[in-house]
Request: fold
Amino acid sequence: MSDAIMTPAAVAPSPIRTIAAKDIRDALRDRFVLIVTVFLGIAAVVALLTGAIALRNDVATYDAAKATLLALGKSAGEIKAPEFYPLRLLRGAIEQIEIIGAAISILIGYRAAASERGRQTLALMLTRPMRPWQFVAGKALAGIALLAGGLALVLGMLTAVLHLSSGVGLVPDDLLRIAIVWGVAVAYSACFFLVAFILTLHMRQISHALLAAFAVWLTLVLIAPQVGDTLDPDNQVAGGVFAQLQISKPDQTQIMKGFATFEALRNGIEEASVTKHFERFTFAVLGIKSTYTGMALWPVLVEMTSNLIWIVMTVLGLGALALALPLNPDRLAKA
Amino acid sequence: MSPRWLVARQSALFVLRERTVALLGAMFIVLVLISAWLGWSATATVDGIYQQATVFLKAAGRTVPPNPVFDMSPLFLMRNMSVYVALIGALSAIVIGNRLVCLDRKAGVLPLIGIRPLSQGDYAIGKIAALGALIAGLSIVAAVAATATFLVLPSIQLSLLQWAQLVGFMVVSAVYMAIFGLIGLATGAWSRSETVGLLLPVTAWLALTFILPQLTANLNPTAAINPISALAAPPDIGFFHWTAQILGPFSLADSFKFASARLLDYLPPDISPPSFIPPFLDLLLALVAATALAWRSLTGLAMTQGDYNV
Reply:
């Protein structure tokens, strides 16, 4: 038997794993993560059910109109049948993850850092035989694992509700798409977790860190997409400006060529936000955006690669920043 | 100088020293200025599209419909302000309300205030007055920015009625922010944890802004942050009729959106708010309820207690 095996360091689990496991146990014990996951789950299921109820109404209206036409001896082809793609019903739920999920990630990131500062245990932990980056990595991994678990619960619940309520049933391709969305949702929410985690670990006052994280959330999740959305000329007139002017799609494209600078600015504002990349990716994969409805998965993924890269680079960049920033002893105590 | 006035003045000055409050306040004011540019830019683009579309329509021998820009009131330029009030204005108000009481608790001055010749009613009035003054200050700055925009743009002339509507919108915005500020004040006073005191009103705000409109009008969250898309008519089915009846009066974000759209002249004629209570009355009732909540929490605050538990 070699000496290396005999040393306690080789027998003991790594500090990263120990800290991560302890944080996960703490989070499960105080039920905070469970409560916020239930809140997100309620918001997402409400979005799914209201969408399903509205769709059912569209189908009933179509059936009634069809029956009327047939009774009059006319062809039912005169009215357009409502299209039904179950995954499109997830639109509202994805938007809830995009907005409320990001806010919850901030709270989990804040608590991951604030718990040690609040208990004044951070300085004590750093006296143990481990490197500061290992402490940060353990905490971050625990937080991201909790987010992954919470999102798996929410998306699992949505899948079950969708499968039971749609009346069509989900096929393996649908489940694969939902699994991909789960992976990207974890990366997206990890961005906000890390923002709050870094700010709370390094700012003088932890309550200020929470507010600063919410200011970042407001800017990236609500304001940047809102500005981009507002500048979309088709959103300025009820029903859409092109629809009101009865302009065909090819003519719309031709007209918009004259507004290339405006469109570039609008797109630039939207692209500055990781939220918009998440939205574009998930809407394409789930076929929520009509351009991608019914399209095979692989071509969609290829087309959406840039959005995926943006999300992954953001989370990796923030992760690297969290590990690289030195822990300041002046910031270790509760403030 | 009365004790109430002293509490109000000292609290407002204390909060104004907070950098995060200043940051959120500054964000709100910058966004108010941006909203004017957004409105102008988007409207000018619609006009440009119309001019180009007429060429296509004439070439195809089709009738040219009227320019949608001509149907728009000049007040329509400020439509984005309603979104920024509902988002960052409300959040700033929550933070202001929370800090007004949280700073006293964290500084440990409650026992000191408790031994002064000052009733808890005076303390509560002072805090509510400080909140009112700070929110009025934010609203006045926003109103000045909006007024300056209308005066600077040469092609825009507002009638006397439209100026009155703009004033009305600023008052409604202040009321909406005050509702959330009072809830922030109340939760900051009664909660045992500083974080919970902040998170409770934020959770309420998230639910009111993004979940209730989905139940009352099948409105997706991103549609809720667009002033035009937010005014879609709910599906004409029993479920939404029931949810509008039951939840409509609590859906304050909906009431604010409809009140703003009416005052800023962009409410489509065929769309009505989900609640059976008119939007202005709904907001006033909510203000009264939030004031009562803040009063109860502040007058019930244990003056022997100092900092939060966690």
User: Anything to note?
Assistant: Chain B has one domain: 3-30+75-299. The mean pLDDT of chain B is 86.
